[in-house]
Design brief:
3 domains, Urease, subunit C, domain 1, globular
Length: 542
């Protein structure tokens, strides 16, 4: 035993005398490694884009770095992972009319006309309107749109993208009339006349008239969105369901080093796209991971698109059909299971979550480590939450819980609201949570995600009086959900999500420690720098 210890000491002395050359040394830092033991450190070294060693100030004497960063006590965290984001949509918003702060339809019309005066488009696309900001629970109709824009199609995407308002010209071009029927969606009418509101699957009827953004527009959108992510400390995004062509565009841009952000891309539920990647065996490299399929089950509470077990409290004779039925869901699950692809189901309401959980448990009973995900989980009944287990990962968006709370109270009523946004209960049954922003419908800010997960309130509200605080997350759990657990949900825990030797050197500096500072100050925190592969991709101090 004595000889063993002497040999170990000899090795350490040899290592210390070598002064190995490395690319970067960071020291005098408050490092949250987020490793298995949640250890703290003060220094680490990076070589060839990966962490080489993590430890204390003694690393200064043992390595010869090309670059040295004295962090001056700043907190350092692993690069944040946004577990649900539409990266392309975030960037393409630059080409659309932002209606997010519109107060009424007159305001909407004014913004559209101002945009049209300078762009003279043959097609108008607006995003982000929210009827609750109009002072009503009811959807608007398209009368004012028809008067202002009688000759060009206008499509206005609601805040959650599960409902849209279009003018009569768009309806005419898409051949939608009072007799049109659609499974898994709604075409609203009043006194026999279409209002212009389309919900869930009905939106797809407009695909035939919506012009595709040019390749150049999409490239610029991805570059713009990447820069927004880096400014917010996001180094990996989980891109929600997109087509084969968009995934291949991302792949080509990454290979050309035009975009460098890491992307876990979900394939949309389209057989052409799925077949292509089944045959290809997915994609897995340092920047892109394609091995999952997103499947829509229902829509959001605010649009009454969530499939509930009982009718809506504020509309007792109304409920929502599932977008796909159980037989179809089982067929898709079987297909993905046989091809070893991860399934990510979008389920908002308790009826939708019940169906997904039953299907998942049916197919996953013989699988050791499938990690199939359920996205959103706005409402889940008591009898179903125990169906979660270590094989099923909840992927949730805390800021969505806050922004949807008023609608949830109206739609669910006093008793069922207790089943809404049960994040801590989900964690107890599953063991992990993946946290995301749901951008561009919510801010792509991990700091906002962290704050809303812990306080269950918005920045403008009393953080000590959040919604159903028994389901709030601790700071530790919130940070894990944006780092280590998020990486695990993507099958990427061996390469990212913590500051450990061998993993990608993706990390961020903040100007204050969100793990200890007063929670009211967390929204004021700012990203000092974002590092990807050991290289600066954003800094506000240059």
């Amino acid at each position: 035993m004595k000889n063993f210890f002497l040999s170990q000491i000899s090795i350490l002395l040899l290592l210390s005398s070598c002064n190995q050359r490395v690319d970067l040394l960071v020291h005098n830092a408050n490092v949250y490694t987020v490793n298995e033991n949640f250890d703290k450190a003060t220094a680490f070294v990076v070589k060839n884009g990966r962490f080489l060693e993590v430890g204390g100030e003694d690393l200064i004497d043992r390595y010869k770095p090309t670059n040295v960063v004295d962090a001056q006590g700043l907190p350092v965290y692993p690069g944040f992972i946004d577990s649900r984001c539409d990266l392309i949509g975030l960037g393409l918003n630059e080409f659309k009319v932002n209606l997010g702060d519109s107060k009424n339809m007159d305001d909407v019309i004014s913004r559209l006309m101002k945009h049209q005066a300078s762009h003279d488009q043959k097609y108008l696309y607006g995003i982000g309107w929210d009827q609750k900001k109009f002072g009503t629970q009811n959807f608007p109709d398209n009368k004012k749109l028809n008067k202002a824009f009688p000759d060009i199609p206008v499509i206005l995407e609601g805040i959650d993208r599960h409902f849209i308002l279009v003018n009569d010209k768009a309806l005419e071009m898409a051949n939608i009339d009072e007799l049109t029927k659609v499974e898994g969606g709604k075409i609203l009418s009043y006194k026999g006349k279409l209002t212009g509101i389309l919900i869930d699957n009905a939106i797809k009827l407009l695909d035939r008239i919506k012009p595709e953004f040019s390749r150049e527009n999409q490239i610029q959108a991805l570059i713009t969105a990447q820069n927004i992510c880096f400014e917010n400390g996001v180094t990996t995004v989980d891109q929600n369901g997109i087509s084969k062509n968009k995934i291949l565009l991302i792949d080509s841009l990454q290979r050309k080093k035009l975009i460098n952000i890491r992307i876990y891309a979900m394939i949309e539920n389209d057989f052409e796209s799925m077949d292509y990647f089944f045959n290809k065996g997915g994609i897995k490299n340092e920047l892109l991971n394609v091995n999952s399929v997103e499947v829509n089950i229902d829509g959001l509470l605010s649009s009454r698109g969530a499939a509930l077990k009982e009718n809506y409290s504020d509309f007792p004779k109304y409920n929502t059909q599932l977008i796909i039925n159980k037989d179809s869901l089982n067929s898709i699950a079987k297909l993905l299971f046989e091809n070893s692809f991860q399934m990510n189901a979008i389920a908002f309401g308790d009826a939708a979550n019940q169906m997904v959980l039953d299907t998942y448990n049916l197919f996953l009973s013989d699988s050791d480590d499938p990690r199939w995900r359920i996205e959103h989980i706005n409402v889940i009944s008591k009898e179903d939450i125990s169906k979660f287990n270590s094989k099923i990962i909840p992927s949730i968006q805390p800021s969505q819980a806050v922004s949807q709370m008023k609608w949830a109270r109206l739609r669910l009523g006093v008793e069922r609201i207790k089943d809404a946004f049960k994040y801590k209960d989900l964690l107890d049954w599953s063991g992990v949570l993946a946290l995301g922003s749901n951008s561009p419908f919510e801010k792509i800010s991990p700091l906002n995600t962290f704050y809303t997960a812990v306080t269950r309130s918005s920045e403008k509200e009393d953080s000590n009086n959040g919604f159903q605080m028994e389901n709030s997350l601790s700071r530790y759990e919130a940070l894990m959900g944006m780092t280590r657990w998020a990486a695990y949900a993507n099958f990427e825990e061996n390469e990212k999500g913590s500051i450990e030797a061998g993993k990608f050197a993706d990390f961020i500096f903040l100007d204050r420690d969100i793990m200890t500072v007063d929670m009211m100050l967390v929204p004021k925190a700012r990203v000092v720098a974002t590092i990807l592969n050991g290289k600066i991709v954003f800094s506000n101090r240059l």
